[in-house]
Fold this protein.
Amino acid sequence: MKAQKWDINDITDQTDRVAIVTGSNSGIGFETARALALKNATVVMVVRNLTKGREAAEKIHSESENAVVNVMQLDLSDLTSIRKFADEFKGSYSRLDLLINNAGVMVPPYSKTTDGFELQLGTNHFGHFALTGLLIDLIKQTPNSRVVNVSSMAHAFGKLDFDDLNWETRKYKSGKLTETARSPICTSRMNCRKSSATAHPASPWPPLTRVGPPPNYSAIRRSRRP
């Protein structure tokens, strides 16, 4: 698959648009928040660690004093934290143009979330699913809004085991498959209410993820053949 030549200069002016980027203190999330802020969007940097989030926001402000960047705390492994964040966001903003579900954990020691889900599945999938659901009315009422679910090309190798969703046997790539599958579900829920909003799965380029080698697209294509 030939990489397309595309950079921040191709982003149109984002004035008056509001964007949420989860996991935006580093990596893909930070670069996404930075790009949108430099294109005049109001960016809500959603982070678990407020200190790191504020340091990241200062980096963006150092590039543009006019950047509108707000830092808010959220722990995607805790449904109570997700509800609290959604309530606070809706109390402060009347629109949501972009919800970029980027945050995630990868191959941590086996543990469970506050609500009893395996940590990766609970954070990467259920956490973002709950967040999107709590914000979906605001997304639908915002013209041409978008939900972007950041996943990985590893989803092509994933296989969901509905008898073992809590992953007593670890399969990280299955988490990427659930993230990819979430996009058509979100789109279906929004379209059935005649909304202009839509959802997209996205696979980032590995140097920004800080984990894993460049993807072998030829192998991926072969794996998907019948």
In short: The first strand starts at residue 18 and ends at 22. Residues 171-187, 199-203, 205-226 have pLDDT under 50 and may be disordered. Residues 119-140 form the longest helix (22 residues).
